[in-house]
Amino acid sequence: MQCSWKAVLLLALASIAIQYTAIRTFTAKSFHSCPIPNPVNCSLSQDADAADRLCDESPTFAYNLSRKTHILILATTRSGSSFVGQLFNQHFDVFYLFEPLYHVQYTLIPKLTQSKSTTDRRVMLGASRDLLRSLYDCDLYFLENYIKPQPVNHTTDRLFRRGASKALCSPPVCESLGAVDLHLEEGDCVKKCGTLNLTLATESCREHGHVAIKTVRVPEVSDLRALVEDPRLNLKVIQLVRDPRGILASRSETFRDTYRLWRIWDGTGRKPYNLDVTQLTTVCEDFWNSVSTGLTRPPWLKGKYMLVRYEDLARNPMKKTEEIYDFLGIPMDSNVERWIQNNTRGDRSSSKHKYGTVRNSAATAEKWRFRLSYEIVAFTQRACQPVLAQLGYRAAASEEELKNLSVSLVEDRDFLPFS
Ligand SMILES: *[C@@H]1O[C@H](CO)[C@@H](O)[C@H](O)[C@H]1NC(C)=O
Ligand SMILES: *[C@@H]1O[C@H](CO)[C@@H](O)[C@H](O)[C@H]1NC(C)=O
Ligand SMILES: *[C@@H]1O[C@H](CO)[C@@H](O)[C@H](O)[C@H]1NC(C)=O
Ligand SMILES: *[C@@H]1O[C@H](CO)[C@@H](O)[C@H](O)[C@H]1NC(C)=O
Ligand SMILES: *[C@@H]1O[C@H](CO)[C@@H](O)[C@H](O)[C@H]1NC(C)=O
Ligand SMILES: *[C@@H]1O[C@H](CO)[C@@H](O)[C@H](O)[C@H]1NC(C)=O
Known about the structure:
By secondary structure, the chain is α/β, with parallel strands linked by helices. The protein has helices at about 1-25, 50-55, 80-90, 100-110, 120-135, 185-195, 200-205, 225-230, 245-255, 260-270, 280-295, 310-315, 315-330, 335-345, 360-365, 370, 375-385, 385-390, 400-405, and strands at about 70-75, 95-100, 155, 195, 210-215, 235-240, 305-310. It has a five-stranded parallel beta sheet, with helices on both faces. One 2-acetamido-2-deoxy-beta-D-glucopyranose (NAG) binds near residues 400, 404, 406 and 407. One of its GO terms (molecular function) is keratan sulfotransferase activity.
């Protein structure tokens, strides 16, 4: 039994490794073979001719001291990451991509579901880092290796959530609107803009001052260390966390099949014997590991890491957003302000989309208190006790306390960026 199970796992891992190797071989022209320029004087530290030959095929990569900021939103599903993504997507000078690592996952590990084996997740990391590095360099062709069917003539209609990226729905990438900067809903963008021309997308990316990428597919900040330390990048990580009780409630409602057993527990008051508690504990472990790394302030993260609690953002979106932009050293843009004003008032009429962000943010952040039974809340508080304490989320001592909104379960804490 034990033996054959291991054999199957080994085979699976081997096949993933082979696929990954194959992809790397196909893309041998990439960026990695280029020598790293000397940050002091911008010259290439090795033989310049050899460097030219090596890098001939990716001439776009130019080391530029007045360079772009590369923003990574490190999040998990249902933690408010779409909301935070919009804070960048709306900025006129930011090129924003919504979860490009989706394509890596579905190429390498098609059957991976939410928070399954950590081994699987880690297998993805090497490929994910390569892709992120290329995308921050505006090499969108690199993504083609992971899109199925493979794009022809650098065009595709299969880019995941293309419509969530404003730059990919506006000129020069999408000209169909002709006139002014009209705001396109996500679905309209896909309908009206037609096939995505990745050459135009690449140009658009280069024209923007900064690149922001959101992902829920990187477990923790130390998985990004190679990118943070890469002198060719100027990576800043915004780690978004949320009360795990809120995440659980939101996932149970959104991913109804995957979280079916939690809903059964909630409905019947009886915990199913085959409940997969890792759906909860993985989130807590990832938060714990990542936040612990961030809070110990290792030199490699200096100036590169900011922790944001979703609840703080929800309570005071404008102030928190200003803090985030201060940390990044990018001036905030009036589009962002207007978007916040439009989308954090109590207008409920438009929460139609599963990943919608339009709603009363402060109330939304607390809704879980009425969605989860006290039994499940108590279970979560035990399972995630260390991370709740670390992030300043108070345990509810009773059902009364849970449902009484005058009892705050979020302590006031300042998580100052490490600069
Ligand atoms: C750039 O720095 C490298 C290493 O410090 C040095 O070898 C090279 O001569 C410098 N080039 C210029 C143009 O200063
Ligand atoms: C660096 O980037 C800025 C802004 O994109 C541009 O104006 C400038 O010409 C670039 N400098 C070099 C040396 O490429
Ligand atoms: C790709 O471009 C070539 C040359 O322009 C053209 O002949 C071919 O039909 C295009 N393929 C598709 C699928 O559009
Ligand atoms: C994509 O855009 C580029 C740049 O404008 C253009 O040269 C190319 O023909 C376009 N590709 C297709 C398939 O239309
Ligand atoms: C804000 O809402 C107004 C009225 O609905 C709309 O015209 C405007 O485009 C919105 N602005 C943003 C940035 O979403
Ligand atoms: C809710 O909590 C507040 C503050 O602790 C308390 O004063 C109030 O009586 C509570 N309300 C109910 C209905 O228990």
